[in-house]
Prior knowledge:
By secondary structure, the protein is mainly alpha-helical.
Amino acid sequence: xxxxxxxxxxxxxxxxxxxxxxxxxxxxxxxxxxxxxxxxxxxxxxxxxxxxxxxxxxxxxxxxxxxxxxxxxxxxxxxxxxxxxxxxxxxxxxxxxxxxxxxxxxxxxxxxxxxxxxxxxxxxxxxxxxxxxxxxxxxxxxxxxxxxxxxxxxxxxxxxxxxxxxxxxxxxxxxxxxxxxxxxxxxxxxxxxxxxxxxxxxxxxxxxxxxxxxxxxxxxxxxxxxxxxxxxxxxxxxxxxxxxxxxxxxxxxxxxxxxxxxxxxxxxxxxxxxxxxxxxxxxxxxxxxxxxxxxxxxxxxxxxxxxxxxxxxxxxxxxxxxxxxxxxxxxxxxxxxxxxxxxxxxxxxxxxxxxxxxxxxxxxxxxxxxxxxxxxxxxxxxxxxxxxxxxxxxxxxxxxxxxxxxxxxxxxxxxxxxxxxxxxxxxxxxxxxxxxxxxxxxxxxxxxxxxxxxxxxxxxxxxxxxxxxxxxxxxxxxxxxxxxxxxxxxxxxxxxxxxxxxxxxxxxxxxxxxxxxxxxxxxxxxxxxxxxxxxxxxxxxxxxxxxxxxxxxxxxxxxxxxxxxxxxxxxxxxxxxxxxxxxxxxxxxxxxxxxxxxxxxxxxxxxxxxxxxxxxxxxxxxxxxxxxxxxxxxxxxxxxxxxxxxxxxxxxxxxxxxxxxxxxxxxxxxxxxxxxxxxxxxxxxxxxx
Length: 689
């Protein structure tokens, strides 16, 4: 079969780039309008909003999410190491900004446990370096005398002085200053990634890496909340191995457990878990999820207030939550420099979770999103709120599922949720003064059920793919036992190494013919395959490049039971001995054979084929080393009078072979070396003399 390649018109990339540049730099009223409407997608869909059809579903889902947001925001403030008021700010601003800039109709963007944990770890580290006491219940102080200068420098970063300053404000202001600087830098990273179209970076975070990271971080979150559950006062552990160190401190101080907190925690966990299980079982009968967290918080606050649990039993409570908004403040530049590295994994994780959830629900409900615009949206959900004392946000799966199950149609539901949070900010926040911290810890721990249930999926995951399971285990272990950032990095590197190893040591096989057909398959995997006389068919299931060149050759020599280099050396050695015997006038060879019989002895018995067919259907590309490797085996086997035929090469592989000179200068022998199917190559080999 002779197939002629199409002649492609040579593309002048320089002209194309200049044309795109001219188009991008030009400014017309229509183009400006399109830019604004693309940047604020709400301007496109809001005028087309079907009020009668959508409004009730959006109002219902917005109210439910708002009711869920309030207790979660207060609870997740423990993870971030900040006051509850800042979590409420975060939830409010994120919903408003995503309403204006997001392209997904359903995702719920706001406070998220993993993001809060990553923020909290940076905040705790910087507070510790500045000399502040990380103990939540310790009397507020700027630090001891030896750290007075450090504390002074840290507070002057906020244009404050030691003289006349409220010590609590010093620690709190520095903590939120670190959080806002971290959030601002993360948002800038996300916007820059959107400008330079770097969304492809998220492809390197596989599902196994994300699941392992989420599970490992969930173990860290659970560990951090245990001290609140049982009411013991231990220092927050920092650095690598925080999970192990925290558990050691917990068991050392278990005798100091507060009985009131232990009983409260047990009751709350039983109620929350029972309500969640019942909700999951009967969710098809419920029009909207039960607001269990809000009920638990209201009841627990009333019991704590009227039972005076803080005064009588020394139970730790949330404390005063101010109402209204604190005046906006520009994040401190000198603090940005301290957290610039920490902001990178935060930006990446926030973006990946948001885009993956957006794509998942867009596919489910048959509409499209723009991943690049999602990056801008989540970036500005971090940049703008950072001026209003808020910290990093992301889309959250649990709240998004609740939104869709309660009839959400558009992001109008996000505005409704923001109004609920605003109501709490303006009027209801002080009512949570007596709320016990152990109740908030219970809400956080119960919300981790989904991530912790991933342990039950390990056997099924292992059955499906062992390599992905190892990636999950490594990422989860590193995230839990070392740190979340290191765990994410380890997961990415390990998953990429797995891909490299797979291409370095891929499957190789000799193929046999399916009886009475022109098809060929792996002889070691299938029964009743016929071997082709005098022909070996070799398959290599990976690209052929510099990293797997040696494995390709070793596998080929092993499966064909012939190393052409060794065989050539053996023949030369034998011929040399024969010449020596002939020069001595001995007409008998070294093996005792006559001269006429020597020719037969030179042909080794183990060579049982005269043609080698290389199935290139799984070779997606060749680099220079790959081309040279094929040229090498062509030459080596030719010295043994064995022809090498290539079959099923894709166009890019053929082009690489042509450029590498595999077919000679004029490609005259190409039709005798390259075939479009294995069967054609086999038939050609059989016809050879």
